[in-house]
Amino acid sequence: MFASSPFPEILQHASLWLRVYALGLVMMAAGAALERRWPAAMLQSRAGQRFNVAYAGVYLAIVEALKPLTAAASIAIVNALGGGLVVLNSHGLGALASFVIVLLTIDVLEYAFHRLQHTWPVLWKLHSLHHSAVEFNITVTWRHHWIESLIRGCLLYPLVGVLFKVEPWIVASTSIVFMFGNYFAHMNLRVDLGRYITWVDNPQYHRLHHSNRTEHFDHNFTQLLPLWDHLFDTQWVPAKEEWPATGLDDGAQPRSLLEAFCWPLRVHAERRTELGGKAVPVLDKETK
Ligand SMILES: [Zn+2]
Ligand SMILES: [Zn+2]
Fold first, then answer.
1. 177-236 pLDDT, tens per residue?
2. Tens digits of per-residue pLDDT, 51-75?
3. Exposed, middle or buried: residue 177 (CB in 10 Å: 0-12, 13-18, 19+)?
């Protein structure tokens, strides 16, 4: 008996990658059109945007290729810890309540993970690729290191399966909200939400998280709801005209896709962070 061919499975993954990337290209093109009409910062280079778009293709391909591994890890974790502690309703208004519960849970888990990414040097080495974008725009949305997606898939998202027994379509619906929220938050768009600026993550609020100014470091971690920043005291409400420059404090950024792929291996400059008003190094060497 011959083993079944892996080609149908590879083709299925390739087709899924193509659809997700095509949707990403459409979203980025639509976002770029809005950014050109109402930019928060002028003079953004086409080369920088092309780099991010190309990197997004590579990143999404790796994420798709890793799916069998993350799925196996999720199943193993849920089985080991006993999945579905709380059974959530999937009908009528109960489904809406379940959607909100899952959305809030994932959002607070993402908030906690994001804080760890800025606190643990090994996670910062990965996450700093996202922050290395000097030009902040919608193409930065997928500029994450692929190992981060592995960590999320193997450790973060299985927690939702451990906590809840819930229909997959409810979890999938929340991922659509997070996807649109992520694209929106990374836009180079001068949108003024006024008194509603702390209701949902948005281009000005998240731009502050990407700021290259030390006083802004370690604020506005949320992925969707600024409520978490408010509750855990990491919120910086931007002033009306506060649209800071973005990037790492040493200005480092990858010059090729290979450098982005191997980003954690580079020699890192230190990140300065504000603790009690005093800038201190969080990595191992003396801050310049
Ligand atoms: Zn961050
Ligand atoms: Zn970001």
1. 999 999 999 999 999 899 999 999 999 999 999 999 999 999 999 999 999 999 999 999
2. 999 999 999 999 999 999 999 998 8
3. middle
Residues 6+ apart with CB under 8 A from 282: 119, 121, 124, 270, 271, 272, 273
Single-letter amino acid code for the residue at 105: T
- Residue 251, judged by CB atoms within 10 A of its CB (0-12, 13-18, 19+), counts as exposed
Q: Kindly provide the b/e burial profile for residues 255-288, where b requires at least 16 CB atoms within 10 angstroms of the residue's own CB.
A: eeeeebbebbeeebbbbbbeeeeeeeebeeeebe
26 alpha carbon, distance to own chain's centre: 19
Alpha-carbon span 286 to 281, nearest angstrom: 7
Confidence (pTM)? 0.88
For residue 117, the ligand closest to its alpha carbon is 1
Handedness of CA 152, 158, 159, 161 (dihedral sign): positive
Residue whose entry in the numeric block shows the structure tokens 């451990």: 162
The total of other beta-carbon atoms located within 10 Å of residue 79's CB is: 12
Q: How remote is the CA of residue 191 from the centroid of ligand 1, in Å?
A: 21
Q: 33: part of which helix (H) or strand (E)?
A: helix 7-37
CB 32 within 8 A of CB 137: yes
Å from CA of 3 to ligand 2 middle: 44
- Rounded distance, CA 94 to CA 259, Å? 47
Å from CA of 85 to ligand 2 middle: 32
**pLDDT score for 62:** 95
Name the token pair of 171: 């979890």
> Pick from 155, 114, 146: which is nearest to 263 by CA?
146
